[in-house]
Amino acid sequence: MNLKRRHMKRIYQALLTTAAIATSAAAMAEPGDNAICYNCPPEWADWGTQLRLIEQETGIHVPQDNKNSGQSLAQLVAEAGSPVADVVYYGVTFGIQAMAEGVVTPYQPEHWEEIPEGLKDPEGNWFAIHSGTLGFMVNVDALDGASVPTSWEDLLKPEYRGMVGYLDPASAFVGYVGAVAVNLAMGGDLNDFTPAINYFNELADNAPIVPKQTSYARVLSGEIPILLDYDFNAYRARHNDGANVEFVIPQEGSVVVPYVMSLVKDGPNPDNGQQVLDFVLSDQGQAVWADAYLRPVRESAISAKAREVFLPDSDYARATTVDYSAMAAAQRSFSERYLSEVR
């Protein structure tokens, strides 16, 4: 067993142990009108509504599942000899790892051609169903009269001193996404994070707030007036919680982060799994994501009502996809540089 394989095995064993992942009662469902989805938690991205709609429209029952992306990948690997799941949902980098581990199989669902290049594996081992875009989540009432910032350069201005927050990019994925976004905006690439390191050092002079965990509530309270975060959190704050929050995609640009699904290799109910994947990309399925403020991968499926929530397409044109395999590969080296070089 080579070093990389041993390292991956240790990670998966640790995840399985610490998460105490057991085969759930849901996974014991009899074959037939069932499909097992790993990481379909009802409170995230409104999977609860999606699962009810799948059963209503297709007759296929998909039990809720509260694993996260890492736990789902770990269990897929552990069960590779006798798979339990039929489909899986996770962040894009985990989809790439699952493909490398050989635990998923190619499937090109209905509406495949509408998924943009860069948001799907060409063979169909993983494909995006919705995405989040990194930008500024701004509590307007907490700006003390300052204008809403519109660019990365704005955040360095004295009037925003002590107001800007970003999750620690060495430990939080959204923090790393922010680092990738600012690095590209400042002329860097996934092989050279020097522009991002320089930017964070400049921002350090403006007394930023750098928590390690999600800070949604701290933005709503005004403790963190400006947070580097996803669009769907800002929209939720504004439209569900009634906060005076705006979302800004900076003028210099940002990045899109997809959430993806895959068909599990040798799953027990492959036909049902394929129907589930077809449904989440249907007009009905995509509408669920839009209503949860995530941007559906199929532009044509976004209703006029949902479009009123999102920023105009001209704003989203500033957010780009990246080489997500390269992004995943670069994460550790960036984290080491950030910890050693940023004040």
What secondary-structure arrangement, pairings included, does this model have?
Layout: H1 3-19, E1 37-38, H2 47-58, H3 69-78, E2 87-91, H4 92-101, E3 104-105, E4 127-139, E5 164-165, H5 173-185, H6 194-204, H7 216-220, E6 226-230, H8 231-239, E7 245-248, E8 254-264, H9 270-280, H10 283-291, E9 295-296, H11 304-307, H12 313-316, E10 319-320, H13 324-341
Helix pairs in contact: 1-3, 2-10, 3-4, 5-6
Task: Quickly describe the structure.
With about 350 residues, the protein is an alpha/beta fold. The protein has 13 helices and ten strands.
Describe this structure in words.
The protein is of the alpha/beta class and 343 residues long. It is 39% helix and 14% strand. Strands 1, 2, 3, 4, 5, 6, 7, 8, 9 and 10 form a ten-stranded mixed β-sheet that branches. Helix 1 crosses helix 3, helix 2 runs antiparallel to helix 10 and helix 3 packs parallel to helix 4. The longest helix is centred in the C-terminal third of the chain and has 18 residues. It is globular. 43% of the residues are buried.
H/E series: HEHHEHEEEHHHEHEEHHEHHEH
Q: Could you say which overall geometry the principal axes of the C-alpha atoms support?
A: globular
- The parts where pLDDT drops under 50 for at least 5 residues are 3-31
Derived structural class:
alpha/beta
Number of helices: 13
Q: Can you summarize the main beta sheet?
A: 10 strands, mixed
Helix fraction by DSSP (H/I, runs of at least 4) = 25-40%
Strand content: 5-15%
Mean pLDDT: 89
Number of strands: 10
Radius of gyration: 20 Å
Question: What is the straight-line distance between the termini?
Answer: 40 Å
